[in-house]
Amino acid sequence: MFSxxxxxxIESLRCLPGVGPKSAQKMALYLLEREHQxxxxxxxxxxxALDKVGRCSSCRTLTExxxxxxxxxxxxxATRLCIVETPADVIAIESAGTFDGxxxxxxxxxxxxxxxxxxxxxxxxxEKMVEYNQVExxxxxxxxxxxxxxxxxxxxxxxxxxxxxxxxxxHGVPMGGELEYVDGNTLALALEGRKKL
Amino acid sequence: MFSxxxxxxIESLRCLPGVGPKSAQKMALYLLEREHQxxxxxxxxxxxALDKVGRCSSCRTLTExxxxxxxxxxxxxATRLCIVETPADVIAIESAGTFDGxxxxxxxxxxxxxxxxxxxxxxxxxEKMVEYNQVExxxxxxxxxxxxxxxxxxxxxxxxxxxxxxxxxxHGVPMGGELEYVDGNTLALALEGRKKL
Lengths: 197, 197
Ligand SMILES: [Zn+2]
Ligand SMILES: [Zn+2]
Hints:
The structure is a homodimer of 197-residue chains.
Chain A: H1 4-13, H2 21-34, H3 36-52, E1 54-55, E2 62-63, H4 69-72, E3 77-84, H5 87-96, E4 101-105, H6 123-132, E5 137-140, H7 146-160, E6 165-168, H8 184-192, E7 195-196
Parallel strand pairs in A: 3-4, 3-5, 5-6
Antiparallel strand pairs in A: 1-2, 6-7
The complex binds zinc ion (2 copies).
One zinc ion (ZN) binds next to helix 4 of chain A.
């Protein structure tokens, strides 16, 4: 019953996480009925981000800059490295406010079934970075899910062969939970209680 | 902590109904981490819809065509007119499957506080259309909210002066509810039980 362009808008909104047919329809009509300005801004922001956002040449987080703001920050201790799955995890740990080292962002976890191996996670780049920055301590803060633990184990084996301290973020983080939803205090405790691997 | 373009994407996603800061962040990272194709499609669909979707020259529903598919359909009875608030309401009534007339879409309701008066709802256009199509019966199916009832009352007074049958969709529709969320059967009953005003 909707015209082709409205149908296409509804369909394409379905790519957003948690958006089903009914909310996609509601969103499309809302934007067209009374939020042209917001929709215009969203279309431009999407296009811009798609065209320009890539990965930090150092930590591989998402950014349109060649190096992200944390990697550019001279005050941060480059010899301590926290390894996380996603940019949202960086934000979560930063909000805990107790870690002053740098990050490495895997943008995923090992998942052979989805074709995600060490190469897709940039683990060769990680090893080079560890050597280049003379990293002394690596804290692995992948999620406490099955895949996150497997990824942790794989990375730990790689890094321990380099004679650096490798630790796992403490399980103050609830098992099965996703890092980005844990509160700052729990994360601060989890960082403090890390165990050598 | 996010780069400017990612921040801007997160901010601009907030214009979507029901999307708070946390889901906007989740959506933005999801799109950039693993849904480039969907994001690209969404950016284009938004841009296209914004550039091209306007209003049907006849019923004023949202469409990029000069006349919408219902108004173009010769099989539909132009002498019977159902007046609704939004395009979603047209879809809801069509799904009931018992109405074979045409629609007039207000795209809102009278709301002096928001500066929405008879002109914004196209009520002059409605009167012309009623005359032009020699409408014999108008069914007012605005929402059963305070604003919807006030809008109904205003339109009914205008149309009754033209010597046509003006009715209100029956209140099988739950009071205070929004039309687009009512099931087809209830809507079919509500249409059948309409009362002359
Ligand atoms: Zn970086
Ligand atoms: Zn039309």
